[in-house]
Amino acid sequence: MVPAIEAALRPGCSQIGAILPTPSHFHDFKLHAGCLRDLRSLPGSFTIPRIMSQADLRCDGCGQIASSEHIARRLQRLEWSTRYRPVHIGTLLLGAVAPLDDCDFIYSPAGAWEGEAKLLLAVAGVTTAGKAAEATLSEFQRGGFFLTYVLECPSEGAAEDNVQQLLGSRLPAVMARIRRSLKPKRLVPVSQALERFLPALNSGDLPCAILLDQGKPFVVEVDTAAESTSRLREALTSQSASARQGSGAGF
Ligand SMILES: [Zn+2]
Fold first, then answer.
1. Ligand 1 centroid to 195 CA: how many Å?
2. What percent of the chain has pLDDT over 90?
């Protein structure tokens, strides 16, 4: 950390130092604004570009400029997801961009899933009829499934080119998370938008099998992907059966 900045911080505030000079995780500056001493004491040649501007903060879940509402929503979804993360992940479903509506987000505690969430539950062999959302999500978790996204927040209207750029810039961090933290037995890309990143995902950096649909990501979308979705269901069913036969451990 830059000593001049360190000197400007109150003792006991370690977090704001962690974001300088390059943020690796998001920290809400507003929480730490009071931890800054008089920045006018910094050398005249030293500037802290935009440090206090909320508008320039980037979300650690997606890399987009983050408003406080964006961060609140990101943290909410993170909490929902973490609740149902298996201790040992058998199958990591990797999407490209998190859906905009909570009803399409599998970990939404409200249930009443639509679209992608509904399809992914079906792919995992989890039925929803007559069950509470909690029971459904627990079953998904017990099956060893976990869903995450390269961009863990909706794209907020970013142009397609920008989304591709965001995906590309987020990918190394996502791969590191898969390697160090999630550690799945198998990875299943479930978005066409990940096709151009398959060489990176397949480069051998990830210590898990990658399940593909004829060399491409599975496409789990309501309108276009009935066949791909059924192939994914078949592939997961057969993997589950062979895992049971091979080790008795299942997913
Ligand atoms: Zn975000």
1. 22
2. 55
Task: Please state, in angstroms and rounded to a whole number, the distance separating the CA atoms of residues 86 and 91.
Answer: 10
Task: List, as ranges, residues with CB under 5 A of the ion ligand 1.
Answer: 59, 61-62, 74, 153
CA atoms within 13 A on the CB side of 18: 11
Q: In the predicted model, is pLDDT for residue 23 greater than 60?
A: no
Ligand 1 centroid from CA 71, angstroms:
6
Task: Match domain 77-247 to its CATH number in 3.10.310.50, 3.40.470.10, 3.90.1150.10, 3.40.50.300.
Answer: 3.40.470.10
Q: How far is the CA of 131 from the centre of ligand 1 (A)?
A: 31
Lowest-pLDDT choice from 1-15, 76-90, 215-229: 1-15
Cα(73) to ligand 1 centroid in Å equals 8
Residues 6+ apart with CB under 8 A from 101: 114, 115
**Dist. CA 154 → ligand 1 center (Å):** 7
- CA triple 210-214-220, angle to 5 deg: 75
Kindly report, residue by residue over 180-201, the tens digit of the pLDDT: 999 999 999 999 999 999 999 9
CATH 3.40.470.10 in the chain, residue ranges: 77-247
Q: Ligand 1: distance of its center to the CA of 128 in Å?
A: 29
Distance between Cα 44 and ligand 1 center (Å): 34
